[in-house]
Structures are given as C-alpha cells and as structure tokens.
Design goal:
Elements: E1 2-7, E2 10-13, E3 18-26, E4 28-39, E5 46-51, E6 57-59, E7 67-72, E8 77-82, E9 91-101, E10 108-112, E11 116-121
Parallel strand pairs: 2-11
Antiparallel strand pairs: 1-3, 3-8, 4-5, 4-9, 5-6, 7-8, 9-10, 9-11
Length: 122
C-alpha cells in the first residue's frame, strides 16, 4: 500500500558530496517523521537523521554539520544532502517514514525503502 523509493547513491571521493532523495507513494493519509538510516558492512543499522513534519531535525553526532535533511510535505519526499563525505560514511542508506495509512486514521506504521548504496573512497 505504501512504498518508499530512494535514489542518489553512488561512488564519491572523500570530501565530496551526494544528495539522496526518497519519495513516498501509495495509500497515504499523512506522514509524520521521516528520516535516513544507514547500515555499513558488519555493523547494525543506525539513525543518520530524522525530520518532523514541522521541520525539526535530529542528527547522529558523526554527521552533524556535514549532512542536512529536508522534506517536502506536498510531494511526500525527504532528502539528505551529504557534504564532506568520509570513508566511514560508506553504507547502504535507507529512507523511512511514519505513515498514517489512508482510510485508517490513527493507525501509524513505519515504512522503509529498499536502500541505496553510498561508497566513499579515500
């Protein structure tokens, strides 16, 4: 019923930039918080950044000041601008959204995209 699709991943040199995008579609009544998580090889998935419908943001300490999360509440999109990338940022990045399903108000579920690979070389 609800699908999140990420795009924008790729290979970049250390110090470079990438912009990830995610669009939510389907039977959506409303979307609450949206965010980006990542999972590196051999590590658990971790929160990178989250943003509320009103624009309040939270960042993992390691990316604060380098990454910027934003959203468009009309287009149901969330983006992650990643600057000054480091090799340790290499991971699969996942988009997530808290979605109130259309036709079922007050029933909120977390949805996840399939992930997009970000590789930062030194």
């Amino acid at each position: 019923q609800v699908r999140l699709v990420e795009s924008g991943g790729g290979l970049v040199q250390a110090g470079g930039s990438l912009r990830l995008s995610c669009v939510a579609s389907g039977s959506i009544f409303s979307i609450g918080a949206m965010g980006w998580y990542r999972q590196a090889p051999g590590k658990e998935r971790e929160m990178v950044a989250r943003i509320s419908p009103g624009g309040s943001t939270n960042y993992q300490d390691s990316v604060r000041g380098r990454f910027t999360i934003s959203r468009d509440n009309v287009k149901n999109t969330v983006a992650l601008q990643m600057n000054l990338l480091k090799p340790e940022d290499t991971a699969v990045y996942y988009c997530t959204a808290d979605v109130e399903i259309g036709g079922r108000p007050n029933e909120v579920y977390d949805f996840w995209g399939q992930g997009t690979q970000v590789t930062v070389s030194s």
